[in-house]
Amino acid sequence: MISKPTIQKIIDEARVEDVVGEFVTLKRRGSNLLGLCPFHNEKTPSFNVNPARNIYKCFGCGKAGGPLQFLMDYQQMTYPDALRYLAKKYNIEIEETRDETDQKEQIEKQNLTESILIANTRAQKFFTDYMMNNEAGGIGLAYFKERGFIDKTIEKFQLGYAPDAGSLLTQTMLKEGFQLDILKKAGLTSPKEGSTYDFFRNRVMFPIHNMTGKVVAYGGRIMVKDEKAPKYVNTAESEVYQKSKILYGAFFAKNEIRKKDECLLVEGYTDVISLHQSGIENAVSSSGTSLTPDQIRLVKRITPNITMLYDGDAAGIKAALRGTDLILEEGMNVRVVILPAPEDPDSYVRKVGAEAFQKYIQENKKDLILFKTSLFATEAKADPIKKAELIRDIVDSIAKIPDAIQRSVYVKESSQLFDMSEQILITEVNKARRKKQGELQKEEEKQQQRESPVKDELSAAAHKAQTIENPSNLPVLEHDIIRILLEFGSWKTQDNETEISVVQYVLEELEGLDIETPRYKVIFDLIKRDFADGVVHDEGFFSANDDEQIRNLAIDILTQPYTLSENWWVKYKVAIAEKKDRFVKDIHSTIIRFKQFKNIVELRKIEKLLKEPKDEADLQRLMRLHVLLMEQKKEFARTIGNVVYRPNT
């Protein structure tokens, strides 16, 4: 395992803006960076990256973390893989060691994911080696050669052949020490009639890579005609593979897509491979499945422009029609190219060559309106009912476009094409949008009901805190105590001319008092325990913590959805105090208010006990305590003003 010093060095070196910026387009807003969240569908950016704290936070879906967490969530990397990725990125030498303190569950999960990836990599080498160096594998090589694939292309895409030999792959890997359970979870082996068989047999193999180039699954094409067997079979979904989130060829195409600012979307494996071999390397495929929102968002993080290339048959046209609306909903620019029947991208690029192929694309690209009208123009002209249906279909598509200017352009174009009032189309588009908005609003209301109780409780308590009679201030006050400890804990402050850490100052000031809200108590107890061992952590320790509960709560406390613009002083001539200038006052005020609250809690208890004292001695003791607490109450009021935080009595 990677040593703790190496892990710490990686965490210290990795910059969230660098890592996130590889996958998300970020724009500066004040001291933070802002972009569209890669974890959920949104039209207005709510994904904040805070370089100063080295964390990100989406105020739409709540996803948060640092560089490591981003790679684990977005790229589905394991913890070790994310560390190794960052080590390579920042040229950090990895030191290996055994760490017995890591949590067993986390280790098991990491080991499972790593084992599946290792098994897939070994299987890829087996399939390729068998095809290239075994006489029986020649059938697979002949298939690829017949397709026109050269050795360099076969090597690039790591193509291979699964032998028709029952369990040859399984037995080979078992002899090499792979566990049968891992082979099953990787989708390489399937149990059958009390024995084990290779899942892929007598098929040419197309490895499917994730965005970092790891083999996560396979597609296998059958080599013999069999009415009972499917032409293609794919690996079942696993810990490393979710088919709706993968685009075939994306790993090989991402740089070229970014460079050309356009993604060519095709249907099959061979379409992608043929285009790449011809030099058209910005092509990806949905692997023969229906296009999904997650796949579209994968492209959106690189470019807003998608050109769909489909066969001229009915199935291809239907797939294109289905895909255009999904892409429009994501706010992207979509163009459609229908190839001459009976060609597909693979056959057509081999037939005419790369230059003529690209020329055809440029000359035959059609936007949404032209594409749909060209398909049904003839029958729509002769049939008013068909024409009305076509217009309604186009109106529904236009209504899905989030950008108002783009909608306006499409409305104007449709008005001219169909020779009808632009205002009528605008009215119908608005109707469709209102209907959709109503559906979204209902969904948002349901989502809000499912949101974290932390935000609900704090929001409600903060609202009630504006009044003196307040039964819900404790979570707010404890939230502020934890914020102080996270934000300033490792800073230094003066106490009787002695420089001590803020953690020490706060813990000493709160001696005898405790945090009651469970989620805050977890962090408070951790800080107390480590301080007793002589360890004081900075905020980065908590925002990058292995414990998900601690990490998410720390980021939630430390981040805010809004930041002041750098032009604030210039525009409004208002000076904003630096954090270093206000932190002492912030700490002092927070502690006093917390003590004030605890004082009143204790005072109310004493007042209740005074109503029914056990005996004269108990009465005298309670009265002395009451006098002492009343003096403290007055002192707190003098210190921070007249507003008193009253607990629930």
Structure description:
This protein is an alpha+beta fold. The chain folds into four domains: 4-89, Zinc finger, CHC2-typedomain (DNA Primase, Chain A); 103-241, DNA primase DNAg catalytic core, N-terminal domain (Alpha-Beta Complex), CATH 3.90.980.10; 369-439; 458-640. The protein is 56% helix and 11% strand. The strands form five sheets. A five-stranded antiparallel β-sheet has the order 1-2-3-4-5. Strands 6-9-10-11 form a four-stranded antiparallel β-sheet. α14 (345-352) packs across α15 (354-364), α16 (368-382) runs antiparallel to α17 and α21 packs parallel to α23 (518-532).
Summarize the entry for a quick read.
The protein has 649 residues and is of the alpha+beta class.
Mean pLDDT: 81
Query: Which strand order does the major sheet show?
Result: 1-2-3-4-5
Oligomeric description of these chains: single chain
Indicate the overall shape.
globular
Main β-sheet description = 5 strands, antiparallel
Low-confidence stretches: 460-471, 572-577, 642-649
Q: What structural category characterises the helix and strand content?
A: alpha+beta
> What is the CA–CA distance across the termini?
54 Å
> How many helices?
28
Q: Count the strands?
A: 17
Number of domains: 4
